[in-house]
Design brief:
Elements lengths: L13 H11 L19 H63 L5 H29 L6 H19 L1
Helix pairs in contact: 2-3, 2-4
């Protein structure tokens, strides 16, 4: 069975396309009508099955991409966290030595308790400033999302929508 050549090709006017589709129903037996693609190639069922398989493969591929991207980001966060932890430990030890030095230096003209109180107040102010600055930085950080995957999925969806319109 062959169909009119206009089927499967872009038509310039909507009416021509509708008329051609109506005429296509006149060709072939009841079982054959609409059972083949417009170009007389593969049966529609095969095309639908292949489209379903391709969509499944696309979704699986996007999920693998998202998983790989999240693993990569997780490794970076883990390494960064470990390095910050080590820096924090040595910073704390350095701070202890510095505090002892500051108290000893201030204790020369003042009593030891006054020197310790002054150093404690200065450290409390520094702690507050650092905590507020850190909170602001964490709030401004981008969410840990698989951004490339999200963009890729959006592009896939728009491509599918565009193909469906044709």
């Amino acid at each position: 069975m062959s169909f009119p050549p206009v089927i499967g090709y872009p038509v310039r006017h909507r009416e021509e396309g509708v008329k051609a589709m109506a005429e296509a129903g006149r060709y072939g037996t009841d079982g054959e009508r609409g059972a083949r693609a417009a170009d007389g190639g593969e049966p529609v069922g095969d095309l639908v099955q292949r489209a379903s398989q391709q969509l499944t493969e696309l979704v699986r591929g996007e999920m693998q991409l998202a998983r790989a991207e999240m693993v990569e980001k997780g490794k970076r966060y883990g390494k960064g966290g470990g390095l910050f932890g080590g820096a924090g430990l040595f910073g704390f030890l350095t701070l202890q030595a510095l505090v002892a030095t500051a108290i000893a230096a201030i204790a020369v003209p003042l009593p030891v308790w006054a020197a310790a109180l002054i150093v404690t107040a200065v450290l409390a102010v520094i702690t507050a400033v650092l905590a507020l600055t850190g909170k602001k930085q964490v709030g401004a950080a981008a969410p840990p999302m698989p951004e490339r995957t999200v963009d890729s999925v959006k592009a896939d969806v728009s491509e599918i929508k565009e193909s469906a319109r044709r």
